[in-house]
């Protein structure tokens, strides 16, 4: 046992020494450092995500109302929604029934009637829109223990007038803290699996690809060393110890470096651009034990990739060792087939599981697509070598033989391009899927700004409407919108009513059955926007405007100038017992959770692309080192340097161009299939085409730079006994 320990120590020290003396060792050390840091970063981000979700749920439970339908209610409670800019705001209306009315977490005391408590982020972002007096008199802020996140926008409003006892919109509350409701950011929170899947699909996969590329940088020397150890009788355990010794120091340093952003996030709140979300440092701090355990796991994963990518096997027919540099393992193509099968069968899964199965299949498919491409190019290399030999084309013959003998090179080079195109395509498709209505809302805002405002109320008498009208900015008109069930046998489904004077502002004439004119002008643009959102619209004369409490009516406010949305909101929320929602036309699509998801996809995707760029640059640099040493003697054998361009073109450029074409076809199919699955979104063929063109340019550049590096090496090459 002691002898085995001494042997293991010697082998580990051999690995440490090899890491400092192997050709290209500096590139590999930095590569393993970056790879370990990237994998640990994604793993720690996963821990922070899970911890954040746990903290959000804990704080949400602490302020959740306990609804009672009996006589034990000490507080009347009702929830509403609003927005500041494009961000939603949760508005909680309260009316204490007793002096000892319960308080939710974050509220030290209920304000006086007509006063309001606001979250700090709502004060910061809404000050310019008059948020301090929109719902009533500003009385203070909600403390952070009552907020789901520091970036939450929530307001507690104590109404000035007691609500009617028979109003069903108000709920009786006996206490807080049982998790009986989901307010604020918890109202539309997805499950934790959604961000974790997106994180690993868009960021984790590129990090693992970077680890694979870094592990195989300078692999030729390590493959020869492994072959020597095997010839001397060494087992896989001995080779594993040597490889671990070579990779341990940069991998450990990279893992420790990944703790720097985690440590910063655990002592101070971090705002994540471009989402605007503030990460609560208390949640991150509480997850330190899980973070350390996950970092150990990520380090073991990186070291496992190093060991797994340097296996040496025998086929039983020859004593010559073989490695992945000379063949593509069959299991890689089989796993690729499993990924494709998951994508295809996802449409037959239960609705809730479809997206998860599709995402898992996508990750597997993109991870092993480059191996399938390498298998194809290996057969292509054999054909090129035979063709070059028959035609006497030295560059084609040598390039073809190299491609046939070293398909792993193509895997590493193509991996970055394959995953990069996949990430860009998925970012575009997801953005289009989640932003169609949001884009329409933005287009409406560009045309008419916020001059058309929807006011949804639970009921409003004619006198209340007149009071509301008197509080509006000068020149504003108030119209009534009645909408019907689209399945009902009537057409049109929307009727807009108002006085003839108000309708004339929209260039609508009162003549029998009121009809809209087709005249041009700024005001008629309002009618066109209403038709874009409501479909066919009928205008009718209505001497008095009111809102029935049956939910089939709302108000439309048309202002004389843009920028008066805040004033309209203040007029609506200061009505007695307000039960309103005020938004610019289409504005509810600006701040919805679906509209904000593209920001998260952009955050994860851009980070993943950065990892892919590092992997691609490292793989190309390693290939330049190998090619320049291997090609330099050809200048002596052929007498000219054209052979450099020829060999690198057939060995690097052509296989990478084939990889680009195959990836483009698979990406197009995958994107179209995804859209058919979710029945939303669109494929931007321009974005896909630009991605393919960029990869084609990279393929040409890799061949050109490889030939240039070999030509420079040839100038100073001298024969050596290597």
Describe this structure in words.
This protein has 21 helices and 17 strands. The chain has 722 residues and is of the alpha+beta class. The chain has 4 domains: 1-62 and 190-323, no CATH class; 65-178, no CATH class; 342-435 and 590-722, no CATH class; 451-584, no CATH class. The strands form 4 sheets. The protein has a 7-stranded mixed beta sheet with strand order 1-7-2-3-6-4-5. Helix 2 (25-63) packs antiparallel against helix 18, helix 11 packs across helix 13 and helix 18 runs parallel beside helix 21 (685-715). It starts with a helix and ends in a 7-residue tail after the last helix. The model is unreliable at 315-324 (pLDDT under 50).
Largest sheet: 7 strands, mixed
So what's the overall shape?
elongated
Number of domains: 4
Strand content: 5-15%
**Count of DSSP strands:** 17
Brief summary of the model shown:
By secondary structure, the protein is an alpha+beta fold.
Question: How does the SSE layout of this entry go?
Answer:
Elements lengths: L1 H20 L3 H39 L1 E4 L6 E10 L2 E10 L18 E4 L1 H7 L10 E5 L12 E5 L12 E6 L16 H23 L3 H13 L4 H22 L1 H9 L2 E3 L4 E3 L1 H6 L1 H21 L21 H16 L5 H41 L2 H12 L1 H42 L3 E6 L4 H9 L6 E7 L10 E5 L1 H6 L2 E2 L5 E2 L5 H13 L2 E5 L11 E6 L6 H9 L6 E5 L8 H39 L2 H5 L3 H37 L6 H31 L7
Parallel strand pairs: 3-6, 4-5, 12-15
Antiparallel strand pairs: 1-7, 2-3, 2-7, 4-6, 8-9, 10-16, 10-17, 11-12, 11-16, 13-14
Helix pairs in contact: 1-2, 1-6, 2-4, 2-6, 2-9, 2-18, 4-9, 4-11, 4-13, 4-18, 5-6, 6-9, 10-11, 11-12, 11-13, 11-20, 12-20, 13-18, 13-20, 13-21, 18-21, 20-21
